Amino acid sequence: MKQLIEIYGWPLTTFFSVCVALWLTFLIVAPQFFMIELSLRFEERGDRLTKIVNDLDVLYRDKGTKKYDLVNGPACNSTGMVNPMMTGDSSCGEFGEEDKLRLEQQVHEIEDKIQSLLVEEQNLKAAKAQQFPYSARNYTSMTGLHAWTLTKTIAFALIVTLIALAVCYPVAYALALRSGPIKTVILFTALFVPYAVNELMRIYAWLMVFDLHGLLNTLLDLAGFASFARDEVIIWYRFPGAVLVVLVYTYILFMVFPIYNTMATLDPNQVEAARDLGAKTWRIHWRVIIPHTRPGIAVGCIMTFMLAAGSFSVPYIITRGLQPKWFTQLIYDKFFESSNWNQGSAYSFTLLLICIVFIFAVMAIFGVKLRQLAR
Amino acid sequence: MRKSATLDAGFIQSWRAATSFRATTDETSLHGEAVRISWWARAVHGKEVVLEKVSAKFGDFTAVYPTDLVINAGEFFSILGPSGCGKTTMLRMISGFLSPASGSIRIGEDIMLGVPPNQRPTALIFQNLALFPYMSVWENIAFGLEARGVGKAERRKRAMELIDLVALNGEEMKKPDELSGGQRQRVAVARALAVEPSVLLLDEPLSALDLKLRQHMRAELRHIQRMTGVTFIYITHDQGEALTMSDRVAVMNHGRMEQVDTSDRIYDRPSTPFVASFVGENNILRGRITVIEDGVATLESELGTLRGRAVAGLAVGVDAMLFVRPEALKIGHESQSDNRVAVKPVRRDMEGAYVNWVLSTGEQSIVAHMSKADDAGIDHDHSMHVGFAAVDAIVMASGELADTGRQVDEATN
Amino acid sequence: MDRGDALLNIFIGMFVMFMFLPLVLMILAAFNSVSPPSVTNWQELTLAWFPRLLAEDRLIGCLQNSFRIAIFVVPASVLLGLSAAILLTRLEGWATNVLYAFLISPMLTPGIVLGIATIVFWRNFSVGADLYTTILAQTTFIASFPMLIIMARLQRKNRSQEEAALDLGASPFFLFRRVTFPFLLPAILSSAALAFLMSFENYNTTVFSIGGSCTLTTEIAAQARKAHTPVINALGVIFVTVTVLFSVIYTLRKQWEK
Question: Does the beta-carbon distance from C174 to B126 stay under 8 Å?
């Protein structure tokens, strides 16, 4: 800190510190904290207290209407008919004494009910306030189906990560160590253009392949395995494989670039030297290139897994509701369909925890430190 | 070669202009050139730097032990030592980038405690020069003036004068990365001088240059220092640089000043085993002191009785080292020196100006430098004697030596 | 060795095809009159889908929202990233490592979690999900990227440049304006461009934090899931053209500078 002030002076140092403090507090730490806090509050749905609150609402409304009627007389409608609820032949203007009494009687009854419910509500609230507000019930109440969805999502994300790694390692190798200028330009274009275009466009483009009249069905039709004429076509959106392919395509850059960046720092002479000393190709990879590229591989795996497991866009667009939902879709539904934010937060935090565990696992496997990760 | 010679000539010419002005009074301002640098020559004058019990610590590690040092005004002072000896720490404390753990630093009349680097009368030339890459040469040089709020026209005028001074005319619009190493060096010097410092601190600024250029720049730096009278404090691990340029040299090791002396005395009269082994080549013969008489110590060694000048404080009975320079050794059967050692020749290396003989006593090897004339009479195949005069040898109590691997390589570095 | 290289070349060829194929199909389908878009079911060459784009009021409104969000996200992210980068390069000790871990954590957090955390937090202050919350949620993680880019540049620079300026008498403000900022400018510009791209293409964080509003990406997603028309393809063609144009200009400028 002393050094900072010496170089930048205290006004600038304060300014930078405040910016970082704001970012850290209001954008990173506090939101996560509140999300976790919310996930630990279980919201009873359909218990006595909820019912009382609902009943009270109804009763207050009733009481209000009746009191209004008492003051203003029975309501008239345009045809001059007396409110059907009201008996008696009096005009719109007045109630009969009898009606008034009955109404007053009813109001009293409602008030009594309200009173007793209020007391009960207060007691229940007091009891609830004394209870410890936090529990893990939002987590433990996850249904078997949802737990299965979560497991499947993680498994898919792992598969996507492995496929991406298998595809990207040779690509990065070609890019970093084995290509002349022309090949490099082509490869970089192939990598950059889809990425600069837009994540959603990348996904959308795959509809041209998977659609009913898309590339795949047409090819099958031409080969005679499917037929548009007899309506014997395959609905590709039903297959989890479609989601896998698009996930790999969508997030592949996050695997290629970390690996390429570390591989490019390898002195090609090391590879030459290994070859000169008689090492076979696989041994060169295993003993020279892969050890050097470890941090890049770790970052690539972490990013790809996190993006695949946390992807909402790909399953949302590609499954089109024809497949069981992904975990991210379940979270979306919790928030915006059943508006159970508490459990939605719990699911969301579960996803985060899994990613954190994955990060530490990968760092342990590859022997990489945090500082090496983001470069 | 020719190019560098003309460059040098131009450079010296502009310095002559500066000298002529400094040597005389304002009347000589009739000389056009002298007028152009008048503001500058009048402004700079060196100040003395006084360190009292200054020490530096990084956590538990003591980088500099409490040190007293007086660097005179207008002196070219070098701090010489191996890497990690604390010399750069010393420099950073003087420039104000580092606060001493204890002690005080005074520059001229002013105590520097708590004074930030931008308010000290010092200018630092960094090891990597730290030129601003996106500014042109003249902007770089004028940076300090810009920081002080000097107007653009005035800034440019002064920068051009300094450019003239360091013989960079015509290069003022270039960016630093379009210049050669030596030119960048001059920009760095001019940039530092532009703020009219009383003390110029140089952190191994020549280490990135190749040998020829380095030697050339040595002369230029020395010249600039003479002309300006600014106090130069020069940090280096290269003894050649320190010895050739400096009025005085401090040899540092492990955070301590081993010896502060003139170049000649550092070489001829080292006061510690470290200095003796770090500066120049030295043969080291070990033994035990038996007699000290009239400043001459006698020591019993495995090679027989040896005699040399005793340093102050040497006592009878202690383990001691005798240091003798290779050029002080004479080879031959009939050498009638105070000291004689029987040796066998191992190797003869032709170094050009002299011949380097590696000899073996059986226990250790000894290096001797022979002039070409003396070398002619040496019989290569038989054992022989080397001898040296007692006045050419120094005896001191055993102590830490500089990394001995360097001794043989020293000449090439 | 030759066989290995041949295999690698075949693999790379297939990879390049894999990367380009969907885009090429999408572009071609934009010029086919068939809706939903298809290449293989070719009817007739047409440019009709491009003018139709202008008639999509909702899409254009959403596009405007995307720009509105980016206008705030880009400067905020660059400012936060710059501040953090300067702090992290100049501070020392274990606390710096902890701070660093916290500040890159949003990059490693699934986007939907960031969106959710943001709306949950701001609901406490009665801020409903809308463009504001999306701006905040996006800034949370986009700021990490400028931080890393600027840090890389700061680390490459030897600190001595700043120290030299200080030594020559520069005041802190002057030093920052004249030495640090110009030095960082290329990194600041490229991180701003990156931040814009990331904000503009973001979907996962946005869809969770935007409430009832829309951006271009949420709108494309909504349409893609339903019966879509080649209008989206036409938009895609525009995107690809702009991208290619910019990269060509960029490459040419780089060449020219050499």
Answer: no
β-pairing, B76-80 vs B231-236, is parallel
Residue A79 has pLDDT above 70, yes or no: no
CB contact under 8 A, C25 and A205: yes
CB contact C193 to A (< 8 Å): no
What is d(CA B101, CA A99) in angstroms, rounded to the nearest whole number?
A: 97
Tell me how far apart the alpha carbons of residues C258 and C255 are, in angstroms, rounded to a whole number: 5
**C169 to chain B: nearest residue by CA?**
B118
| Straight-line distance from the first to the last Cα atom of chain B, in angstroms, rounded to the nearest whole number | 22
B195/B143 Cα distance (integer angstroms) = 9
- Rounded to an integer, what distance in angstroms lies between the CA atom of residue A132 and that of residue A341? 20
Nearest C-alpha of chain C: how many angstroms from B75? 21
Chain B stretch 129-188, residues whose beta carbon is closer than 8 A to a beta carbon of chain C: 130-134, 143-144, 146-148
CA dihedral B84, B88, B93, B97 (to 10 degrees): -110
Say how far apart CA C205 and CA A5 lie, in whole Å: 37
pTM as predicted: 0.79
Distance in Å, alpha carbon of B11 to nearest chain A alpha carbon? 36
pLDDT averaged over every residue in chain B: 82
Nearest CA in chain A to C107: A303
Supply the ipTM of this predicted assembly: 0.90
For testing contact with chain C, the best of B124, B200, B203 (most C CBs within 10 A) = B124
Query: Which chains would you list as touching B if contact means 3+ CB atom pairs under 8 Å?
Result: A, C
Least reliable range by pLDDT among A52-56, B75-79, C16-20: A52-56
Residue B59 has a pLDDT of: 85
Average pLDDT over residues A319-323: 85
Judge: B133–C183 Cβ closer than 8 Å, yes or no: yes
What are the pLDDT digits (tens) for C132-179?
999 999 999 999 999 999 998 887 666 788 888 888 888 888 989 998
Q: How confident is the model at residue A229 (pLDDT cuts 50, 70, 90)?
A: confident
CA angle B243, B247, B248 (to 5 degrees): 75
Residues A355 and A362 sit within 8 Å (Cβ to Cβ): no
Q: DSSP class of residue A233?
A: -
Nearest to C87 among A17, A29, A302 (CB): A17
Cross-chain residue pair C167–B124, CB shorter than 8 Å: yes
CB contact under 8 A, B124 and C163: yes
B339 close to B387: Cβ distance less than 8 angstroms: yes
pLDDT at C2: 67
- DSSP readout, C49-94? HHHHHHH-HHHHHHHHHHHHHHHHHHHHHHHHHHHHHHHHHH--SH
Chains in contact with C, where contact requires at least 3 CB pairs less than 8 Å apart: A, B
Q: Closest Cα to residue B179, out of B226, B140, B223, B149? A: B140
Q: Which residues from A are below 8 Å from B116, CB to CB?
A: 6
Are C140 and C106 a contacting pair, CB within 8 Å? yes
Six-digit token string for C107: 């990059």
